[in-house]
# Entry
Amino acid sequence: MPARLNYVERPRLKRPILIAGLPGIAHIGKLAVEYLTHKLRAKKFVELYSEHFPEWVVRDDGSVKTLKVDIFHCKPDGLKRDLLLATADAQAASPSGQYRLTGEILDVAAQHGADTVVTMAAYVLSPHESKAKVVGAASDAETVKLLREHGVQLLDSGMIVGMNGLLPGLAAARGMRGFCLLGATRGGMLDVGATESVLRALSGVLEFELDLEELHEHAMTLPKFKPPRLRLPSGIEEETSYIR
# Structure
């Protein structure tokens, strides 16, 4: 079954950049996008419903709602391009579903002229590991150089697993530029400090103004939502989350 799109409005967009933050470890990406929608007064323009989400619904004051991707649009001060801000209630429940849902999100972005895709997520530190506050990776040499110039420490090994890696990776296969910003964290339910570091890096790389004064206050409004655990093919249980 193809994804179902519910258009709230159909704005005219100027070379938009897609920025995605999905639920996961320490809620870094999701909180980052939710703060951007709040602070930049972004307007929702499309909802994406897909069969590749996990088989559960979200409870909200006694009612239930199906899982979806919400995509907003805005134009920050100092940026000559529009932003598309995408977040969701969950990531897809299986590897094949992650590929399909990633493709569905990229389809929407491409249909509206996006040529750059950014994801924000978590880099989980080991007990004795030290790392820069933000690490990243990009799809092409020019964007790698851009990240380095803005103080983002580049990953030189390892994997970015899940939709956080697939979105910029598959964007490159479509001729779009992509990069990922990962906030260093020890984990937990909510890491506001790591989220702040990622947002500072994002606004620096894209060169737009962003006031982070309200971030900690806004973080307290984020529902303490913990998804069920999923059993992977290897038999290891994992939460639906960012995995580095």
